[in-house]
Amino acid sequence: MKYDVIIIGAGPGGIFSAYELMKNRPDMKVAVFDAGNSLEKRKCPIDGDKVKSCIKCKTCAIMNGFGGAGAFSDGKYNITNDFGGTLYEYIGKDKALELMKYVDEINVSHGGAGTRMFSTAGSEFKKLCMQNKLTLLDASVRHLGTDINYVVLENLYAELKDYADFKFLTPIRKIEKLGDEHYKVIYDDGEDECTNLIVSVGRSGSKWMESVCEDMGIPTSSNRVDLGVRVEIPAVIFSHLTDKLYESKIVYRTTKFEDNVRTFCMNPNGIVVNENTNGIVTVNGHSFEDADKKTDNTNFALLVSKHFSEPFKDSNGYGESIAKLSNMLGGGVIVQRFGDLERGRRSNGKRIEEGTVRPTLAATPGDLSLVLPKRVLDGIIEMIYALDKIAPGTANDDTLLYGVEVKFYNMEVSLDNNLESVHKGMYIIGDGSGVTHSLSHASASGVYVARRVAKNL
User: Fold this and answer.
1) Residues 148 and 75 sit within 8 Å (Cβ to Cβ)
2) Ranges assigned E (strand) in 64-122
3) Which residues pair with 182 in a beta bridge?
4) What angle do CA 51, 57, 62 make, to 5 degrees?
5) What is the pTM of this model?
6) Average model confidence (pLDDT) for the chain?
7) Cα–Cα distances in Å, from 102 out to 261, 344, 351, 413, 420?
8) Which runs of E-coded beta strand occur in 181-331?
9) Is there a contact between 307 and 224 (Cβ–Cβ < 8 Å)?
């Protein structure tokens, strides 16, 4: 088939690219490829009863498919340039915020009406954090929740399915350039051609993206990997923050190594979940808008960013090796009480069962000090004690730490201000580009590129 536009990846970047093309150029012929399933077929087999841990499916229902890795996330859209990516460096701060607000309007009109918009602006917690050597980042946050986010995606797909050809369970094996402005995408059952190509493969496609860049001579620069744990505590400990802010992005600079440790993906009254990235099991968190699905716990990640210089370039490989070590020792995710970590002993099922925090994920009790590098672990411990000053109880013995949590970032791809690669007509967007690191930034990048393609084609 010959298309005007082929989109690789049906995550936020791909979805909003297709949506904006549909609105601006309904005459275009568009195809969307994804390695995962359609939304209704994305079912993780872990039920907590018969299947308690990751069985390493051929394609991970949590990470791949329509909606991308964000489909079953907490549905948090952070409208800010302070974190979530560097899209503003390419298109300008005002344009980036304008597009993120536009994405929010679309989400609200497609099932998100009635959900709350939180803001850290003018918050009394900003002062509290500063008084305790912590920094609270500014943001407006639309919280859809995993359940409402699913509804929004359903409604978007209902509009898009008659406009674009969706090809699920169809990973792209190779991209070839045909002449000056034409491309061929090759997959197991065939090949298709297009005039414009939008690549939006997300973090789970980082390895694939690296191979494409190498194969097509697209320059890249070294990026980072984020390593850490997911913390689970009773929800009441953080309720004074989450009730008003919901998502609080807090940064702490350690005294020992002067590393930045940050909170990430806070899920009030949520659950801890497994993720499978390229066969490696890591940990993440979800929460829900529906009151019946809420738990008594809040979870969030504590992450330390590691940037590498010459001669080492494989930051993702470094993160994978640590995650593999966790999988080797625990058969998947490891869980440890904070008190046990501080005492230098492995957690066991008995001590966790006797604790005051009921784990929401069936993980293997173990010792995270055998997995995480000392520098990373020291930073996490420092951060927990710092958070204890603004949320007393965070450093309790029974606080649960799940490991490891790894955020893989693609090598930052060389792009111009239109997010176009060195090959004319080939755009690389979303988290797979190394430019964006969030739902809102990835979605906004999709809108931006789609408008350019619609205008030029």
Assistant:
1) yes
2) 76-79, 117-119
3) 178
4) 85
5) 0.81
6) 93
7) 31, 50, 49, 25, 22
8) 182-187, 190-199, 220-221, 224-234, 250-253, 260-267, 271-277, 280-286, 297-307
9) yes
Lowest mean pLDDT among 178-192, 277-291, 432-446: 277-291
Locate tokens 């330390």: which residue? 304
Task: Using CB atoms within 10 Å of the CB of residue 119, give its burial: 0 to 12 exposed, 13 to 18 middle, 19+ buried.
Answer: middle
Rounded CA separation 303/318 (Å): 15
Residue with tokens 């919901």: 246
Joined together, the tokens standing for residue 298 give 């809040």
Tokens matching residue 196: 């414009």
- CB-side exposure of 76: number of CA atoms within 13 Å? 26
Element (H, E) at 381: helix 374-390
CB contact at 8 A, 268 and 242: yes
**H or E stretch at 4:** strand 2-8
The answer to whether 270 and 359 have CB atoms below 8 angstroms apart is no
Q: How far apart are CA 184 and CA 415, in angstroms?
A: 20
Q: Is the separation of the CB atoms in 28 and 165 below 8 Å?
A: no
Write the burial class of residue 169 (CB in 10 Å: 0-12 exposed, 13-18 middle, 19+ buried). Answer: middle
Segment 104-151, tens digit of pLDDT: 999 999 999 999 898 877 678 989 999 999 999 988 989 898 889 999
Query: What is the C-alpha to C-alpha distance for residues 24 and 29, in angstroms, rounded to an integer?
Result: 13
Residues 360 and 274: their CA atoms lie apart, in Å, by 11
CA 341 – CA 347 distance, rounded (Å): 8
What DSSP state is assigned to residue 397?
A: T
CA pair distance 242, 244, nearest whole angstrom: 5
Judge whether 20 and 447 are in contact, CB under 8 Å.
yes
